[in-house]
Amino acid sequence: MARTFKEVLSEAGISMDFEAGGKAPAALTDREIQREPHERVKYLKERYMEALSSINNEFPYWYTREYMRNDLELPVVRRALALKAGFSHLTPAIYPKELLTMRKGPFVRGSFAMPWLTNSFFLAQGDALYQAAMKSGSASAGEHSKFGAGGGNVTQSFGNVVSVAGKFGVRQEEVGILVKLAHMWQDKSVEQISNRYERMVPGYDIKEQVMRSLVCMFDSGFTLPQGREVINYYYPLEYGFDGIVRMCEEKMAECAGDAGGDGMVGTNRLYNYYAVKLVIEGVQAWIENYAAEARRLAGVTPDKQQATEYAAMADRLHHIAHHQPRTFIEALQMVETLHIAVVNEDAISGMSVGRLGQVLYPWFEQDIAAGRISEDEVLELLEQDRILKTSIDPFASTGVVGGVLSGNSFNTLSVGGVNRRGESAVNRLEYLILEAGVRNAMPQSTIALHYDERLPEDFLLLAMDVIKSGAGYPAFMNNDVAEQFFMQHYACENITLEEARAWSIGGCLESQPGVWKTIHLNGKAYEVPGGACQPTSVGIHFLAMPKILELTLFNGVDQRTKAQVYPPHNRKLESYEEVWDQFKLYWQLSCKVLELCNNLQHDIWRKNNMAVFNSMLKPGCLDSGHLINELGYRFNATYNVESCGTVTWVNSMAALKKLVFEEKQFTLDEVREAMVKNFGFKTAHEVNSFSISDQQKREDDDGRFNRLHFALLQAPKYGNDDKAADEVLLEWENWFCDDCANYQSLYAKPMYACQISVSTHGAQGSATCATPDGRLAGTTYADASMSAYPGTDRNGPFALLSSATVWDHSMSQNSQMNVKIHPTAIRGPEGSKKLLDLIRAYMRKGGFHIQFNVVDTKVLRDAQAHPENYRDLMVRVAGFTQYWVEIGKSVQDELIARTEYEGF
Amino acid sequence: MDEPLKGLIFDIQGHSLHDGPGTRTTVFLKGCPLKCDWCCNPEGIHRYPEMLYYESRCVRCGHCIDACPHGAISVVDGLARHDREKCAHCDSHECVAACYHEGKCLTGKYYTVDELMQIFQRDRQFWGGKGGASFSGGEPLLQRHFIREVLRRCKEAMIHTCIETTSHVQPDFYLDVMQYVDWVFTDIKHMDPDAHKARTGVDNARILANIEALAKKEDWNGVLVVRVPVITGYNDSEENIRATARFIRGIGMDALNLLPFHRLGESKYRQLDQCYPFAEMKPPQDAHMRALQRAALDEGIYCFVGHETPF
């Protein structure tokens, strides 16, 4: 007898008794994930949505004034005095209804420039700024990066507001001061000092060409010298600021004049502890200024409840300015304060909060147990935390902030993973963090889920709900693969397995090692993970593989600018192996010169502009008395080589291999001519779309490239479980991941591979001519490193995920797979389980990262046409979530073109 | 050596979510004994490879006209039109090779059993606990020797199998092949024999008899779910759905899946130079589907609409 349906379902543990004769609960059949934030948060979010990105000169003015005054002081102390002045003069800005406070500047979305790092931008733009009609930046990257026209970006000047760097508004009367400050750093900024020394590097002219042709996206040492790392909140959470100051004073007494067995930098410990003490005093003054403002507001606010809230806030701020937090809300406020202090110290993107749910758990657990707070109140706070984090705007030039970051600050929060003993680290607070991510879906903090087989199933299913809400997070990261990477790469610093388990995502998907520390609260001890390494995604930034292939095929000449970027190789390129070999030589030439130049930039940074506050937070600076610049961090081997356009390159090499070298259907000259002529198409800039699907033929095209173009498009493509393409990928990965170790950071540690595209696949694609995979000139590359080129993955997601895992992802710091999935494909609880099945399978096969855009392409097209209707639409770009209206057009086009998976 | 068994397949979809329990890989076999006039997979009807013509990709270069050895292509209103009588006898498909714009593609490709098994072995890592291989069409049981061998091999490899069948299949073969099938979706287009014949080309006697025999087959313990594609004005009366439900209950089964008609197949008709007869027809109203669901529930069986299934 056939089994009845009821039998089958009951075997599977599903009760169907409600169904016969009745109606299925809505939760079973129709669950669209849409939940609202708390009223208070809704109000605050509306204020955020109205706010424009703004800068002023408060911090830079006081910093510069103090720095210049102390010109004979030791560098670290001079830096500390300047930071102290900057912090203690920041005007507090507290807004009604908020429970958590403190922000970068005195605006909802405030930021400021740091001309001591880079000032050429302002020097070059000074006149234009005065005329209040500045266009985009002068550097090449600036020309190829455009912000989304909408949202909170000030892309054009209006009224008394001048647009800076295509994103920020500044009051007209501040422009003069801004430019004057930039002039005061003439020949003194990290950028300008390091440039004087960079010129002494043999091959510096090649570096210049490499930057101008956009083979490399941007410099490392003065753009965003820190970030893509995880803050460690431990010391202030355990000892309070007063406790750390006391420690510094004791240590100063202990170290004064004592070399401590280190004849090189041993005596520096005195100055370092002194510097830490100075900066903490500045930060304490800044918090007390906020406390005073809250107290003032409490006194003048007629609304009783609001006045009470201000008074309580003042009490909390005053307390955390000195001591270990007593309650959950104080601990969370402390974390907010520390976060902003760190990002105010340096130009930073990707300063991530790490495994916050595990760090704050001691206060959560004790407050809940004592009835001091309810889960609903915790949720409300976590929702507001998302507004504060999203309000952080990093400041840099257009090319960096737009072309690389799409305006994103990457304050990634990690959940999941395992504890020190290797058990699931998930706790109740992390469930609430996910829930807050659904209720108040905003780009920050984007959430990274460290997937491990040991995590509870209901937690993973809750994560599916979050994905289905369309927020673009959480991204899934493979805990095992990350640990293996750490054990291999950080063997040079004697990492232990326990330490590897403390890892976290910093930036978008830069995994990094951490350490465990013990927090004591009311006599109970808790092990918490935290950041313990130098910034990652520093070193050699975003090398455009398809661009280097173009230069390989054209004897070192850039087809866009006609400049001779590399010395001519004069080879005939008669075999696939010869092309591959020459590509490697050009790649290594780029890496070598960028390694040396960027090391000099970071070296000037570490001598004059070293982190003091962020450094102090990281183990073991306070233990050793050495800051970041003297290898004070537990892990220092963090520099990397970043690739961009992997899949476009793989497809190009696979097409050349098959059609030109194996089957000899076409000659290399024919392919080259077709590339230069863009296969008879107009350029992407003429069409004003960077998506391959919108490109148009030239009116005078005679069709002579049609057969060739078709053959190239039909050639083997990555993402189809096709060996011909996948073997090219495998060969590349095995070579690339090994080659990185040939370059050494300024800290004398080997580099490693980093394979994320962020938004550079748009900007670098824009500067690259047509490629042998059939991609047209100026259009974006395939995004990320493991996503298929849009439309070429024709055999469905299983084939794509199989292709992606032909190589061992643990050789690299990361890999990146973005998948666009239609909302109907994952509807209902069954849809959730099936989505989890898919993710789990990819993780089991060794994939490092996967994330989803749950969106209908028709919606994106409409949003591009009518941005005014889509202020709060969020999309997953490449390792981060951003408001649709705040990303540039080339990346919008690429998102639309990505292959959309539907269930059938 | 014997020529290996080959099956003609017009699509393989990984990550298929609605063709059985869990996540699955669905194989679409070409050829069908029924001629349902609303068919949404018209490229699955004939048992030979066919050329599909994509008007939107056609750049009107005329290369295919020059390439066709049968003189089957003419131009009407600036677009290619194909004499499908002539195309039916063509197995060289020069027109497809001549097109550089993917304006012409071939549907229907021969796979050996081994090739198919290789795909399943790759995909099974992604299915999760409940998934497996599904076979649809066309009528998947039409290519008898091939499908039997594939299903047998799946069973051997411990792969969960599911078929979507018309059940208009030779009875002995039908019951025999089911020993390798874990889950059966079978259509009953209409309970009335004349109405059934009017729009599918065959009457429903063999279909109902097969379903009943399978339900009662002693040594088969698979799952049987009846599906009704709900076509407005044809089989969407409450009476017909109640009759279907009573039939299901009568043979000891308990599940009915109502699939509202959709027009997703429309573009494929144009690609096959055919006229789509239902361009104007509206999908059934949601309220009406709910009413039909209530009627079936009333008859004491489980009833699911569309993809709102608990598997």
UniProtKB/TrEMBL annotation, chain A:
The modification Glycine radical is found at residue 879. It comes from Crenobacter intestini. GO terms for cellular component: cytosol. It comes from the Bacteria. Keywords: Lyase, Organic radical. GO terms for molecular function: 4-hydroxyphenylacetate decarboxylase activity. Transmembrane segments: none annotated. Its EC number is 4.1.1.83. InterPro entries: Gly_radical, GRE, PFL_dom. This is 4-hydroxyphenylacetate decarboxylase large subunit. Residues 784-904 form the Glycine radical domain. The keyword Lyase applies. Residues 39-776 form the PFL domain.
TrEMBL record, chain B:
The keyword Iron applies. The keyword Metal-binding applies. Belongs to the organic radical-activating enzymes family. InterPro entries: 4Fe4S_Fe-S-bd (IPR017896), 4Fe4S_Fe_S_CS (IPR017900), Aldolase_TIM (IPR013785), BssD/PflA/YjjW (IPR040074), Organic_radical-activating (IPR034457), Organic_radical_activase (IPR012839), Radical_activat_CS (IPR001989), rSAM (IPR007197). This is Glycyl-radical enzyme activating protein. PROSITE patterns: 4FE4S_FER_1, 4FE4S_FER_2, RADICAL_ACTIVATING, RADICAL_SAM. Its cofactor is [4Fe-4S] cluster. It comes from the Bacteria. Residues 18-298 form the Radical SAM core domain. Keywords: 4Fe-4S, Iron, Iron-sulfur, Metal-binding, Oxidoreductase, S-adenosyl-L-methionine. One of its GO terms (molecular function) is metal ion binding. Residues 49-78 form the 4Fe-4S ferredoxin-type domain.
